[in-house]
Amino acid sequence: MTELRDASATIAMKSGGYYSARTKGAKDVIDNAAPLVLSAVEALDLGGNLGGDPSRPICLADFGAADGGTSMEMIGRAVAALRAKAPERPVVLTYTDLPSNDFSQVFRNTQGNGSAGDHLTGQDQLFVFASGTSFYRQVLPRASLNLGFSATAMHWITGTPCPIRDHVHAVGAQGRELAAFTEQGMQDWATILRHRAAELVPGGRLVLVNFCIDEEGRYLGNTGGANMFDTFNFLWQRLRDDGAITAREYQNTNFPQFYKTVEQFRAPLDDPHGPLRAAGLSLEHIETRVVPCPYKAEYLANGDLDAFAPALVGTLRSWSETVFMNGLDPTSPAARRHSVVERFYKSYEDEIRAAPEDHAMDYVHVYMTIAKDGPGARF
Ligand SMILES: C[S@@+](CC[C@H](N)C(=O)[O-])C[C@H]1O[C@@H](n2cnc3c(N)ncnc32)[C@H](O)[C@@H]1O
Questions:
Q1: Fewer Cβ atoms within 10 A, N terminus or C terminus of the chain?
Q2: For residues 154 and 192, is the Cβ–Cβ distance under 8 A?
Q3: What's the CATH number where 31 sits?
């Protein structure tokens, strides 16, 4: 085993609005969370309406928001519900992501100048900010957050604890390698929750929607038919065997990700003697859901393979491209690295064209609501 290899340079969604334009499924996943978010709003004790300080803002945050486009409609609904509940209270909305994120697109989207629709603009007393602080740190001041949301982000771990010999993803790791990823994933999850516990006001809520391995062993791109991560691995290995990439480049390509089971998501919250219980966090709701791949659904309806194959590859590229690009020797010419990556995704498209029925990227998520209790739930 080697030292933790920092992941921050490897994690980046494609910029310039590419991410939310190519990830219709991620928006479906978030829209599915709307009932949980609206219930969380209902459960918030906003004392200001009932005689507390009406000038104190209600704080919302979207952690790991990418360009903000996929959550915009759902956040718009949450803001409307808060307004209905506490009309006189200002609302502060913070979008967070890594410093490498394309925040200019967040600002375009939130000002109604992007492609995500106009759900937040022109509202009096709504204040939108962004933070490039990792969710592995405290992003917001202590006891300031009323409602935190995050979707499809917290599977990115702080780094890869070791190379995975025969695969590109922890879902294909075994033995000591799997144990190392599991330890890293669990440690990182506890860190995320510890910082959110500090940020939440007593009575605040988190609604977290994350990739998982569900009760039937399904996970992203592995719900029957070709396994997406096995396909990535097979095609990347083929480039190695053809001599297009070196053995070292193959070995250096590992997703800094870990998909937890439901039991693993629950574990630190269920521990009666653990630091999260002591900080007042408790699990209110947990369930898993599969959201079908929208591109596959369209293909099944219209049979248009020329639309399906590039659309599915486009959605894969939106989140995986930096991982493959960063696996390549950075001292080799940029033109060579780009052409390897083009060839790789073209080969994935060929796989889809050869057996379209086998390919899809169904989303498998755990949906959780976590509450912070403690004295003075009204403020
Ligand atoms: C797949 S995108 C999800 C975007 C959006 N929440 C959605 O569901 O469509 C994952 C996002 O998490 C961000 N991310 C990964 N690690 C992060 C970290 N440590 N802190 C903040 N954001 C992070 C990535 O930069 C990326 O924008």
A1: N
A2: yes
A3: 3.40.50.150
Q: How many structural domains are present in the chain?
A: 1
Probe ligand 1: pick from 30, 72, 98, 315, max atoms within 8 Å of CB?
Answer: 98
- What's the pTM value of the predicted model, to 2 decimals? 0.92
Specify if 333 maps to a domain.
no
pLDDT tens digit at each of 379 positions of the chain: 456 777 766 666 666 655 565 678 899 999 999 999 999 999 998 764 444 567 889 999 999 999 999 999 999 999 999 999 999 899 999 999 999 999 999 999 998 876 667 788 878 899 999 999 999 999 999 999 999 999 999 999 999 999 999 999 999 999 999 999 999 999 999 999 999 999 999 999 999 999 999 999 999 999 999 999 999 999 999 999 999 999 999 999 999 999 999 999 999 999 999 999 999 999 999 999 999 999 999 999 999 999 999 999 999 998 999 999 999 999 999 999 999 999 999 999 999 999 999 999 999 999 999 999 854 443 3
**Cα Rg for the chain, rounded, in angstroms?**
21
Which H helix or E strand runs over 309?
A: helix 305-327
Name the residue range of residue 106's domain.
5-221+255-292+362-372
| 242 found inside a domain | no
Residue 214 lies in a domain: yes
Pocket of ligand 1 from Cβ distances under 6 Å: 11, 13, 23, 26, 30, 64-66, 70-71, 96-98, 101, 134-136, 151-153, 156, 319
CA distance 72 to 20: 10
